[in-house]
Amino acid sequence: MTVHVFKAGVVSHPKVIAIRNQLDELMEMIAQLRYVRTEPLRSEIRHSENLAVAFGIMSLPDWMPIQYSHHEEPANLR
Question: Origin, by domain of life (predicted)?
Fold first, then answer.
């Protein structure tokens, strides 16, 4: 299993342009369903969860579920 890590605003993934294009398409499809945004579009596009889902949709077969885990940055305990 390969694990891909996405962080909000980070553009280091080798497929970042394709991922953002996929996410733009998804957001357009959602807008056509009359989804009411609670945040500005640019803010939603930069959410790491949205980037991960867009990458999963473009990379995985239709039958395969998309799983993601949301973990906060570890706190510095010293």
Answer: Eukaryota
